[in-house]
Amino acid sequence: MDGDRDGSITYEEVIEGLKSQFRLDWVRIEADVDRLWGQWDKNGNGTIDYSEFADPTTGVVRYLQVHYPNNPRPPPPDIKVNKRAWFEYYDEDRTGTLSKDEVARALIQTFRLYNIDRSAVINTLDMIWPIFDEDGSNQIDMREFVSTDNLADTIIAQLYVA
Q: Which of 13, 36, 51, 55 sits in a 20 to 30 Å window from 83, CA-based?
C-alpha cells in the first residue's frame, strides 16, 4: 500500500490499497475509512505508520479482520471469458463507465501488480487513455471497452504475454 515507500501510508494510499488488494464493499469501506481515520492515525500526522496500521486492537488490519472476515466480494470474472462481466465488476460506482482509477485497480488485480507503485499504472494509463476513450469523456463506456481491438482486447492480449 505504501506506494511512495516512505514508511507510512496516506489516506489515499489506504483507500487505493484496500481497493486494489482486497475484495471489499467499496462504498462501505470509503465511509468507514472516513469515519475511522482519526482512530487509525493515532499521532494525528495525516499518515498511518506500520504500528498504527497493524495495531492489534484498533489498526486497519484488525478492522478488516473484524468487519470483513470472509472477504465477501467474489473474485473478479475472467476477462477472457466474459468481458462485460469483468467491466461491470470493476465499475465500482455503477455509473456504466470505468474511470482511470477503476481501470488502474482492475489492472493491478488482473495482473497481480501489487508491488508496483499505483502512480506508475496511472501514468501509463494517462499515456494510452486517448486511444481507448473514443468520445473524449475521460471514462471508458461499455461500447469503448468491448469493441474490437479496444481496451478489453488489449488487456486480454497482455494476459497472454504476461
A: 13
